[in-house]
UniProtKB/TrEMBL annotation:
SMART domains: LRR_SD22, LRRcap. Its main location: other. It comes from Aphanomyces astaci. Keywords: Cell projection, Cilium, Leucine-rich repeat, Repeat. This is U2A'/phosphoprotein 32 family A C-terminal domain-containing protein.
Amino acid sequence: ASNRLHSFQSLHGLNKLPALRSLSLSDPHYGDNPVCRLCNYQTYLLCQLPALIYLDTIELTSTNKQVADTTLIKKRMYYNMRIKTIKRNVTNCVRKARACFTDHVHYTNFNLNALMRELSDLEKELHLETLPPSAATLSSLPNLPNNALAIKRDCIAQYIKEKMTVLHSMTAAFHSLVATLALLSEKTIRRLVLELNTGGNIRLEDGTSADVWYTSCVDLVKSRAFVADLHVFGVRDVHVLRVARINNRYLRNRFQERMDQVLDGPDDHVKENVTKRGVTVKDSAAAATAKTGDGRVLENALEYLFYSQPPILDHMATPGGVTMREQEHAVECGLRAVDEYAGVADGGIKLSNSLAALDLPRLATALHVKGTNRIDPTELVPFDAFGWDTPTELTLPMRSAYRRGDWRLPPGVVLIAKVFLGHTRQVPSMSKLTQVQQEYAADGGDLQCLQVTKPTDPKQKCYFVLDEALILPEYLVEYEYTTSTTTPMSSCCRDGMGGPDKLAIDTTLKPDTEALQDMGEAFALTDAFYNKYKLTFAEPLLEQHLLEDRSKGLIQMDPAIARRHAVMGHNAAAAAITPAFILETSRQQDLTLMVELNLTSCGLKSLHGFIACPLVHLEMLVLSFNEIRRIECLDGLVALRVLDLGYNILRGIDNVTGLAALQSLLLNNNLLYRFDDVQPLSHLHLHTLDMRNNAICDAKRYRLHVLQRLPQLHTLDMAPVTKTELDTAMKLCTALTPLKIWTGSRLGNTRQRGVVSTLDLFQATYGKKKRPTSTRTQNATTFDQDATMFDEDGAWWSEVDELHVNHELLTQLTHLDRLTQLRVASFSDNDIAYIDGLGMCTRMEELEL
């Protein structure tokens, strides 16, 4: 009794005491714990400690235990039902989007195949036109207008390029949608599990336009956005996407108690009046402040302020997207103590009445990281005060990233908190924050907040609160900015969240009210994708099997080329490559002088004949639209630079390592299915690789896996390889490393499963290094070596009881032999082919693969 146990999670250690019969957390003579004032306190303890006889000096009856067990069973059934419903709805959303995506891809490829065949024949005819007149007279298309073939080829090539651009854009949108739906599902499930585990004392409620508090939050964000200050980033407006109301009983009780302590004073000095926000202010505190003359002011009113994590933490993330922002961490545990932010924030917990004051550093940091393509804490710390004391001006890396045009304003998440400012001191500039804080700490003064006013706008203020208990998180707001050149697509998607009738386009998605509340955003995003990429036919059964009008028109465009049949015709015995056959097909005279050879649509089944052909100067070989099963006998083509084997029946990539000069390899529309075939290509100097429409393309993160093995590529599947994409591929980790285990674990139920906060991850990454120096403080100290630091050989291995590593493309599971206390493990949505050490996990109760 009379301690500071504040949550049910802090009582989990009692489960290790099976003989416990009497427990006293509250005593009339000594006092109680904060946990005793939570809802369902008795029910929770009776379920966790069934052998308990006395609780808080009161004898428990069998009826109490029976009611508690019944309540727990009902609650578990209810939350399990909601969780299963969420998973089912997400699966239906993915299925609907995948069906739309697959139909669009198949129909596009159906048209592209016909166009590619026509383009291949055009290239062959154009090559024949370049030959000497004696050979060109054998062409099947005499007396053509000048450049007619070239014009038709260019038209078809341009249309193919346009179709591929749309196809790549749709593919990226589909994969992004699937990843977003997975994260939404996990986030919503985490909220429900948190609500269950805390007995309903921590609960998040999503708002709609029908809720008064939702409208108030939207108005508050828009009125305090100060969008004009963000003009340097091209911001035009702010759109609120989602608002969640936070109900945390412990934090609310702590806030009220701490506020009463600050306001506590002799009864004869208490003011009779009450401020408009219902806070009683003591005259004694104001009088004492007036006498000190040190500039402190006891604020008489509560303030609603914005909080966002320090900008450097926005770039702390694990590949699986399981990192939790500090705003989300505050929902469960409240804001941390000031000293825990050492190295990422100086002067106190930064809040502001201006959204721009928080977002200018966030956007500047994001743009700087995009421009430099690295995360250096020493470079990012100075951006904490970006645009505050001096006019906003982009740095050289920012301008470079902005000019490239591949940067978009990242969406934001802000915490709206009720704050009691208490004794507040005005500070002239941010450079004086640490100095003032140290002075009051040395004098033992009672100071709760430091206030800084923006020099160019007195309306905008930043508050550096020194007591985390005086901050009560109340709303979590997700929002995005729009510019003059973009439209708020995300908000447009969410406009459909007003009712089920606007969401379900077909009979596969008919969410009820509860499902709409849990996963309304998922339904809206899925329908937005469906509406954008769905195929519309007047007569679906007929038109989906016919070429679209533009493709048909390009193929029938003059000059029309008669379809070439196999050169070998009906003579199957002649289906072999010989010097005579190559000379006849290419209509040239000397194999040793041949530079290009086009054998498309020749009915070839084997390449064995190339071994007898001295094609020592051949640079381009086209073998598309044949029936080739294996790559062989090409070692003699020492000058070969381009090899086209598209539209064949290859099942592997063999015998190409000897082609030292090869730069472009086209293997689209074959039967390739193994990443092991791609690895030998790393020894070549390839810059172009096309493997579209192979079974290997259906693998998860196909492009990243290929780029990880072939980082020298410039073009993959007719799409340029971006620097960001290449960097992501090179950082792709497919093994279960100790750091990945640490970030995805739960140690004795001390934190949410599979989730680590950005601050914990930052300290684990940079904690053993020297703290970045801030231009404001010019102080260099080291991080506190607290328990959140990652140590590969630490004692935390024996404390891990849950491990969740999902959606991270793991190919092998290792280090499991060190997790002797592991009870629950989840490795869903990976590419696991090898598991080692699982036999040592003797306490395993649940394994999800």
